Amino acid sequence: MLFRESHPNLSKRVITMVEEIIEGINPTRMELLSVRKRKKLAEKGHKLLSEKRDALVVQFFDIIKDRNTLREKANSDLKRSYTALMEAQMIMGQDKVGDATGSIPELGKVPMRTVNIMGVHVPKVEYDAIPSRTGEPLYGYIDTSAKLDEACEKFRKLLIDILRLAEVEGTIERLAIEIEKTKRRVNALEHIFIPRLKATEKYIEMQLQEREREDFFRRKRIKAIMEAAEEAEAAA
Predict the structure, then answer these.
(1) Which of 16, 104, 164, 221 is most buried, by the most CB atoms less than 10 A from its CB?
(2) Among candidates 88, 129, 134, 83, which has minimal Cα distance to 110?
(3) Cα–Cα distance between 193 and 20 in angstroms, integer?
(4) How does pLDDT run across 30-81, given as a tens digit for each residue?
(5) 130 phi-psi bin (left φ>0, alpha ψ -120 to 50, beta other)
(6) DSSP letters of 72-136?
(7) Phi-psi domain of 93 (left: phi exceeds 0; alpha: psi -120 through 50; beta: other)
(8) How far apart are CA 25 and CA 19, in angstroms?
């Protein structure tokens, strides 16, 4: 009892010197069970988030490789498309090419939706919904060259490449944001919440053990006093 009175918060101070505990915790058995349950949930959440982070990182670098491949293809297709356009201008003249292509209708809005990659909504272009004008007369064929037809077809394919590249870039950006958010949550659980719960669990256990020791010595003391009283009464 004397130990408790002279050092009422010794176990708490010993723990908080190393690790911080949760404030406002009552060192009871019910609280201990609650803290253990919270610690178990936090450790499970940490495991799941770590697995999610690792899977997202793998997915991220796979898409980076796809992005690099698409970028190289788009750059190559862009050069070929402009080469075909310049050849058409050399044959027909720049003004006639401008007149002919001016009648080509605009693509309009690109139909898009989102797909779910491990809880991350990323953009997806609806390529099947994009109007295809292959084989349709986009301009008069009388005063145009086959080189213009070739250039138009190359630019049409280039447009698809650019849309795919934009789709991948959007996916990379959203995955990067989600990876950073998941990393912060994992770090918070690993370095703040779980250590705090463990320290709180240890603190409650020490407090309960201290109370048990006090109760034991108190009972022993009471027993000794009662025995002494009985002996004194018997002697009298």
Answers:
(1) 164
(2) 129
(3) 10
(4) 999 999 999 999 999 999 999 999 999 999 999 999 999 999 999 999 999 8
(5) beta
(6) HHHHHHHHHHHHHHHHHHHHH-HHHHHHHHTTSPP--SPPEEEEEETTEEEEEE-GGGSPP-TTS
(7) left
(8) 15
CATH of domain 2-222: 1.10.287.3240
| pTM, 2 dp | 0.70
d(CA 139, CA 29): 84
Rounded to whole angstroms, the Cα distance separating 18 from 9 reads: 15
What is the rounded CA–CA span in Å between residue 41 and residue 37? 6
Q: What is the DSSP string of 20-57?
A: ---TT---SHHHHHHHHHHHHHHHHHHHHHHHHHHHHH
Residue reference for tokens 């006093």? 225
HSE value, Cβ hemisphere, 13 Å, CA-based, for 36: 10
- Cα–Cα distance measured from residue 190 to residue 17, given in angstroms and rounded to the nearest whole number: 19
Distance of alpha carbon 74 from alpha carbon 160, whole angstroms: 9
* Tokens coding 8: 């009422």
119 φψ region: left (φ > 0), alpha (ψ -120 to 50), beta (else): left
Q: Which of 5-9, 11-15, 57-61 has the highest mean pLDDT?
A: 57-61
